[in-house]
Design brief:
Radius of gyration: 20 Å
Number of strands: 0
Number of helices: 13
Strand content: under 5%
Shape: globular
Distance between the termini: 41 Å
Order of helices and strands: HHHHHHHHHHHHH
Largest sheet: none
Helix content: over 70%
């Protein structure tokens, strides 16, 4: 847990990431619901309710923000492949997950009906907007470019993924399904999403910070001085991020 907190702090206090966090955007509630549904899915027992609940909660989060839409089905895909005990169990898992998705859609339609919103207009506007914007964006791999531009946290996340592979290779074990799903999501999200804005790349970095804990684990066991060096870099980046945001807030207040 200590290494995980270290990774989260390292990414969180980077200026552009902290700038996104302090905005308190409305879609952050959707991100929180999505992560909570993943946590419940991971700690829950195998059964119908587990997949159904995950499909419902993750879909409710997706209806309010599409930014993490790929994460839930990727998790279900890898989890069902690794732990399936036959085609019937696999089909049952996807059936229950689909039922949860349908229930979430029904709740969304009910809310629109209560608010007297044209259902067809709302759905076409939301879905068509995201698909058309992502397809017609002239930015071309905008998210990937923004990720590369913010290279300090990217270096730590990339090193963390390499450490993750090394740890499991040395132990001759297969990583758990969540970690495989997270790597797949990070790759697909970076390649498929066109907008380069911070509301897209900040959640990417925050999710990727999960793997930095493996880097700390490896460095600590390789050499104590390496750990101190990286910990010092973490503190410097954190202080720089805090200082940058303080100056940014002061300039905003002065301009206002």
């Amino acid at each position: 847990r200590l290494w995980a907190l270290w990774g989260i702090a390292l990414v969180t206090f980077y200026p552009s990431i902290m700038d996104f966090i302090v905005e308190s955007r409305l879609d952050n509630w959707a991100h929180g619901l999505s992560l909570w549904s993943i946590w419940r899915f991971r700690v829950g027992r195998d059964g119908d309710r587990k997949y159904l609940e995950f499909g419902f909660l993750s879909s409710i989060a997706t209806l309010t923000s599409f930014k993490l839409a790929l994460l839930a089905p990727i998790i279900v895909f890898f989890e069902s492949l690794r732990f399936c005990k036959g085609p019937r169990v696999l089909a049952r898992a996807w059936r229950d997950y689909s039922v949860g998705v349908v229930l979430a859609l029904a709740v969304g339609l009910l809310v629109l009906a209560i608010k007297e919103v044209d259902v067809f207009l709302a759905l076409t506007s939301v879905v068509a907007y995201h698909l058309y914007f992502n397809y017609m964006a002239t930015l071309g791999f905008g998210l990937l470019k923004s990720i590369v531009e913010n290279y300090p946290p990217l270096i730590f996340i990339g090193a963390g993924i390499l450490a993750w592979l090394g740890v499991h290779w040395s132990r001759r074990e297969i990583p758990n399904y969540f970690e495989i799903s997270l790597v797949a999501f990070l790759l697909l999200q970076a390649l498929l999403v066109a907008p380069p804005y911070k509301q897209y790349y900040a959640p990417w970095f925050l999710l990727g910070s999960y793997f930095i804990c493996y880097l700390g684990f490896v460095l600590y066991h390789l050499r104590y001085r390496c750990f101190l060096l990286v910990a010092s870099c973490t503190c410097l980046i954190s202080l720089y991020g805090i200082g940058w945001n303080i100056r940014h807030w002061r300039s905003s207040v002065t301009a206002g």
